[in-house]
Amino acid sequence: MIYTNELFAAAKEIIEGRRQKAEAENAKRLAEFEKAEPRYKALKSEMIDSMRIAMATVGADKATTEKVIREQRERNLAAQREIKALLSAHNLPEDYLEPQYTCKKCGDTGSVGIDLCSCFENVLQSLAFEEANRRSPLRFSTFEEFRLDYYSEKVIPEYHCSPRARMTEIFALCKEYAENFDTDSESLFLCGATGLGKTHLSLAIAGEVIKKGYRVIYNSAQNIFSELQREYFSRDNTRQYETLVLECDLLILDDLGTEFSTQFTDAALYNIINTRINMHLPTIINSNYTQKQVEEKYSQRISSRIIGEYACLFLLGNDVRQQKSEA
What whole-number distance in Å separates Cα of residue 46 and Cα of residue 44? Predict the structure, then answer.
């Protein structure tokens, strides 16, 4: 993925902050240990002296150089053994006097040789997701807040069940989906009239999935298409937002069908759905449209993928938001 200069600068600041923190904490530990064990300071001096003596033999004859280096190596190793013994006497690990970097691979420098370290890439990606979701109304709802008592127990003959029974089943399915989520999870199509809890359930899923460490993008269809269009026609060629939408672990596309339909939005929707199916990445789509209405509004290549590849959860009941406002 190509990132903006602003994200690079922010990531560099975070990595540098980690390094400075690790080294400051290490300096504090060293000072405390030296105070508790004065012998440690003397041993450090011995190790430095042995290195100086070894370096001073440069230019001498080979036999002398080898003899001095061998003697100073033994001196150095003896000092290291004694330091380990001092640490052990205080029940401290052998690496206690070394900086405890977040990333052992690069020592919190952000690079390994000439390449960016994976830790730097991870920070960049996290910042990119935070930035993407900062522009969305991502405010987590929870499963605990979802109330089934707003749904009638009266059976609807057309569906051979009551809204309460249907929503109890859907609630359990969504909770299980969140608990067992991985990038092989199936895609979901939550549909039904407005105010029945589609957004609440999908946000509850998002909250649990993010806690597991997965990358989630949530936004309304209109906002996602607007952001993609802005990015597409801007001078910024990073296509950062598009990459996040296409490659995130879970994409939640809310309120599909409320967007202003154009040739661009239709192409963008097809690209999102088709790309993520091909990459075997799960998507949750919320819509007030039924599957039949999706077929009527969208092209066959879009509707067939939603109907054929997504598990449909059709919500029943009366507008919960309205019931809450009237209570």
Answer: 5
